Amino acid sequence: MKTYEVELERALADDDRRALETAMTLDDGTVLKPVVVRRLAGHNPRYEMTMIEGKNRQIRRMFEHLGYTVRALKRVRMGPIRLGDLKEGEFRALTEEERALL
After folding, report:
1. Distant-in-sequence, close-in-space partners of 30: CB < 8 Å, separation ≥ 6
2. Which of 7, 27, 83, 85 sits at 20 to 30 Å (Cα–Cα) from 75?
3. Distance, CA of 23 to CA of 71 (rounded, Å)
């Protein structure tokens, strides 16, 4: 399971949110499993998206299919492990508690 924070150029319409939360077939025939979408607080249209499957550029492709532009995208969790402030390419050792969760 992977969780991302996504910022869009505009707010997500209810119909489009429902489309993300059901299986989606892209124009090229790729079938994508549903994701869980949660609106994040603040003025920008930001959302938390959790997916079980993670196909190449899946989030960007889903939003592009629905006519949205992704302004920012950041992975914030892998399974039960919160990634925190890690920058691209950085890593850290797992804590004992995180190891136990795996």
Report:
1. 55, 61
2. 27
3. 24
